[in-house]
Fold these 2 entries.
Entry 1:
Amino acid sequence: MNDERQFIFNMNFEQNLSQIEKPTRYLGGELNSITKDLAQVDLRYALAFPDTYEVGMSHIGSAILYHILNSQEWIAAERVYTPWPDMEEYLRASKTPLASLENHLSLGAFDIVGFTLQYELSYSNILNMLRLSGIPLRSSDRTNDHPLIIAGGPCAFNPEPMADFIDCALIGDGEEATIEICAAVRDSKRQKESRADLLDRLSRIEGVYVPALFDVTYKEDGTIAAIRPLREEYQKVRRRYLNDLDSAPFPTRPIVPFMNTVHNRVSMEIARGCTRGCRFCQAGYTYRPVRERSPQTIADLLEKSLACSGFDEVTLLSLSTGDYSSIEPLLKGLMGRYENKKVAVALPSLRVGSLTEALMEEVKKVRKTGFTLAPEAGSERLRQVINKGITEADLLEATHNAFSLGWRVIKLYFMLGLPTETDDDLYALIELAGEVKKSGKGTGGADVNVAVSTFVPKPHTPFQWEAQIDEMETRRRQSLLRNGLAKKKVRFKWHDAPLSQIEGVFARGDRRLGAVLERAVELGCRLDGWHEHFRYDLWKQALADCGLDPLWYLRERQLDEILPWDHIDAGLDREFLLRERTASRTEQATADCRTGPCSQCGVCDFKSLRMRLTDAVDITSLSGQSKDQGELRFRYRLKLRKDGRARLVSHLEYLNVLERGARRAKIPLRYSLGFHPAPKFSFSDALPTGVASDAELIDIELFEPLAAELLKQKLNEQLPDGFTLFDALPIGLKTPSPSACIEYATYRIELPTVSDRLSERLQSFLLSEQVWGEVMRKGKTAAEDLRRDVVDLQLEGDSLLIALRKGGPYRLLAWLLESDDATVRRLTVRKIAVSLKPLPDRDKTEETEA
């Protein structure tokens, strides 16, 4: 390990964040994040998610591992995410390596860097993150001075396209194996083993795959000739299993991000695995068997998580949440506990057959969360082929109930290009969407959104041998759907055909794609999952440069062909997958082994590894209503200081900080009425990102009175570093909002130098009735009177004081200093005071009485 490790976070980095889009992506310091003294630990582990912060922070697997690793005193686990292009440009220009959020440590200074292979289109991000960290891309080029690069997640079930770049992969569940891997690395360090010895040590851990210990050869036609293990006893790598989910560790102090993430809520995994047997679904096969958490465990974990986070929504996660054995009593118990606390419960993975009117009644009690159903195929015939097992009548009953209960928009997910699909199946999809829209007739409004993705065959499924339709055919079928759905007045979204092509290439790809991936990154590919950054032209060039045809990877596989992942044992018998493929051709259903006979898939040993279901019992212990907010109203005005890293928190993010802090402090917040209740806060005008403040005003309304000093104390105990309440007082109900009360705000700007030229411009500005500057609005330059809202300008030593009626100081600063926006945003700016308008007499009287 390199002795020249260093911490890279410094004041210049923080100052430059104010010029970066969404700086809280890189800030760190969120509530419940863990920053350890790295001198006191034996091992440093970087949890690297190859996508942006808002995507990675929504990944429950990373959150679980962060909790498990940091629960060990000898391990420090820190997070790192793919930077957005503006941040990447800053890192390269300043020669600053990509670093973790907690200690701002370069990725190259960790012992282990663990990447999540969540989807194929993130692979280019992994290589780009390694490049930004100065870590050699290829495993063969790394030495003992470099971290171990490990991968896990769903795509690790075919790790071959990444085989040249990762040192090892963990196949399957990571809760137990991750600690075993860390212990092996620690022991190897202590014994000063070579890198080859470390990899050999890791290969002896169940579930760990070391690509370097297998040799792959190819035939002239491009198919695999052989996958040869280099160690006799290391023939296959069997997937790692977590036998009992109920006793598994789970985080109860979720990190609370400043910014809005994709899933900004408490995510609770209530079950793992699925036995429905949808033949296209990789997760349904690779996460078997079903293991459920008990309702009481779920309730206890949620109670702690909500208390420590302040979130106002809970998501019950599993591959098919509606199939959870105690879903109705669990949901009823949770709503009984949290309805008056305005905590909503979302069920993201609903299945038509398990969706009851009682479930929907419970979900809508606080706020109507999204309502999404996945028929997957439009015709009954094609749903039989994929073993979906739902009828049109079931779907229409569910959508009619949803519309009747007040939902106005229903989303339907389908796939196109499924095996044996014809145009008749697509016309059936169009008709089905139209019938769903009709099912809401007379209910007060019914909109239907249809989203269609392209079927991509995945390893370890009955459809792993099937062909994927090419780009031209994908576009033709999308056009057919677009035209037909438009006539039904149904909104249509689709997955871009080129993205699906590249996903399909890598989903069933082999080791030869490593060269393609490396070439694509050299050409500039990254953030491929983001439409605006995906460069299909560069991917086609990379494939051509490496002499590979993408259509070859989309072809149908022969049943006797060696597949790139054949040495990865997901626990499924090959004969079972072949039986399921045959059953799809004859449109035969395979029963759910939860309720029917065992499907003989080969996963269970029926001892420790078996299906673990909870008893469907009524959960009365979860009831216990919180107080209703009643009719009484009490208003308070809070004064807050925003300093340090908090100044980089945007206005919308700042609103979330206050709301969640109030919920954690158990403040009796009054909420608005209606389908989407929100706490009654009122804020002063938005503070520009990067500006510190000693004078932020917030009005808050409660349904019970609190002593002002106690209110301030309770909130300060829950606010993150950088946010401090320094005053609180009761105010009248008719007192104008903070923004209406402020006459002007005063800003202090620290200047590097004060010249005579600046003094002259200040005087000239103050003597002018109008001063015109330029401003960009909707991409166009417009003229703006900079003088209109300026109350005063003063030089005070090396500082400039600006008093403004509204708006921020940056445009005025750029004019005064004859500079550009980027330069003035590097200056230290602080709002030091606000001048309040006098209250009308009636409000003074009311305030006194209050």
Note: The CA atoms of residues 693 and 767 lie 29 Å apart.
Entry 2:
Amino acid sequence: MAEMNLKQITDKLNSEFTGDGRKLVFWYDANAEFSEDVDSMELMNAKVLHLEKDNQFYIKYFLECEDKNTNYLVYAPFAKPNIRENHLEDTIRYSKEFFADRASLLALDLGIDEKYKPVLQHYIKFFANKDRTQKFYDLEIEEYNRSTIEVALMSVLCRNKIALFEEVLRCVLIDGGLEDNKYMLEFEKYDLLDAFWQQVDMAFGYSQSDPTLEKLVMTMLVTYAANTINMDMPQTWKNFISYKSGNIIAFMDNLMNSLIYSERFDELSREIDQKYGAKSVIENMETETLIDSNIFEGIDEILINWIISRLENEDVNAKLSGKIIPEICTERRKKHFGKNYRIEYLVLENAYYIIAAGKYEFISGIDNLVKEYTSSAFNIDRRYRYFYYYLDSLDDTTKFEVLRDLIENIYTNDYLNKITVNWNMEMNEAEGETGLVLQRNFFSKYIHFAKDRVVVIISDAFRYEVAYTLFEKLQADEKCKASISAMQGVLPSYTPLGMASLLPHRTLEYNDKYEVLVDGKVCASTEQREALLKEYKPNSRCIQFDSMKNMKRKELREIFTGQDVVYVYHNQIDARGDATKTENEVFTACEEAVKEIHDFMRRLSSQANSHHFYITADHGFIYKRDKIEASDKISGASRSNSLGQRYVLSDDTWNTDGVCTTTIGNVLGNDDNRNIAYPLASDIFKVAGAGQNFVHGGSSPQEMIIPLVEVKVERGKKETSVAEIALVSLTSRITSLNTTLDFVQTEPISDVVKETQYRVYFVSDDNEKISNENIIIADKKDKETVNRMFRLRFSFKNQNYDKSHKYYLIAYDDKNDSEVISHEVMMDIAFGDNMGFFD
């Protein structure tokens, strides 16, 4: 009960107890509206005496025999009995009766027009509870009529803080079931069911003689479908289509796109799908008509099956509504249900680009081949990597089996074998000179004369296409300035020689045991490499990445402070790929390597005062998912002195078809005439116990084009950012002159997330402000997302809005002078509309 009502009643009662003589006042409260309040009333000159139906004789005795002097308010929480049954009738004759009309008091207190008093009286049972009544007051409704009163009553029962019917319906559908809904039971208890369905009719155009929540949801889903599927709805659905599609679309979009309610929306959609067989209906529609619809989950399954069919037939020109397959995949995986099929769409997108690349065309000139690979052809390797990266993350890949076989055949036979043969033929023609910087000249060219501290991160088997992924990630990092180039790797393209080539040296050679020597010394261990590095750079270190992963800031500083150059050895890809049990995880290792290296650089820049980095590799790799049959392997390598799957080091000369040779001296720039043999194509030698999917050591762009990524990270204090805000639901349509939107502060305030203030408002495309302006102070520290939410109410100018014009929701950060949200919306408001209210 509102305090103003109590005060009015109390003042009126106190006036009855003024003057001389004893006063008795009887108050029969027929609906027990004030039973919870009567004892809290501050009566100045009287006491409260509670009358019950079964204590009338006692009250009569008490008033006329026991206490004849005290003023009493005799309160009865029931209607006054008739004369025959009222044993206090004679006492009442020389006393007074008090009448309190709660409906009148509510109307007076809230400023409600007298003509709506019958509405309040109709729902007077609701106001019998003090807490409910106070919550009704707290809604602070600006204009009262029958509609706003009834919506407010329902809002209180739904525990909403604002009186909007859309919020009432959202609460009913989200927090309760479609049957035995707890809120509908509450509405029935307070005689609000008819009002609820009348509001549904006004807002969403759903009206039936026997309305149900299930049929309402079906109506909303079908209406949404009818406006997003480009064909006439089947006859069985036509009766469900509402004429108020705009309101329905806006409401459903809000549920679908909500960070909080989207899961419940999915449940509702699936529930209706199962009940009414929506999937079977959709399956009979033309696939092209479904491309823009997103209301049922089954639509994405239909589209995915269509794409698989087109790709299996290598139909890369296939389109739906003018959109090619990658465009479909990109758009669909961003949509509501499409997010559930994100992995499938990414598998298909990568498959498309492999198929679209078609058969590899030979390129003349090694310099042209290098340019082609480093600018575009590497993407085929990357697409192949991501095809399997995403495919392997699916629980069931049955539907992709035929497509997988096709991809494997195209990649291996039409691309990998051909580009490798092309590479080796052109390399031979150019006598092993690609025109790239030689890997063995890395130190002298990039490190020796560096003026600031340089951290060299050498990631084992970090091939060019993986490095390019890192490069793109760095380009998106505002703290990093990055560039990428390539070097010509050594042959054999394996760790012992690749690691040695990146060290400073005067001589690089093999001894009689085919051990790699740098300046005559073995360099197989980290300690041996550090000793060699210190001969050229006394203030230097060599260290394994894994030993630093869990170091604290102080420990990191001790390693890097005072050093001119630090070599960091990172081994994620090669470690996984070289082990037979895990070689099929190598593409997962590539993703992890990119993230680890990026995070590591950011960490060193903030904790170890190191800002200049080079990321490179000892060698690349070739990976094919299908294993090579033993009969297809190159035999005869067993007589060599040192061998791997992709190379042979030998004192003897090779004359075998499909095998190329060069001398160690040609590779290392010395007079060593011993031979290096390697497959002309992407084949492997027959080597006992070796893996077959992940290989390196040979000559191919994938193995020998070594990436070199240079990164400079901006210096500065510990990175901080301001607290950001986001719309909870990505509203795309405004349908009312008064609209409420929910925002969330995305992260709590902390030492790295600082508070700020935003102005939020709507503007037209010519920058005219068309709404009120709200202020959000983003200063919440609560870790629970729900406690960092803001609800803003926008009132729009009552004017004509053109649906063809663009309007924007703007959030502006004044402290940092930046516009952080510019979200386009459609203004779908009819000028002069009464906003759906009725009197």
Note: The chain is about 40% helix and 15% strand.
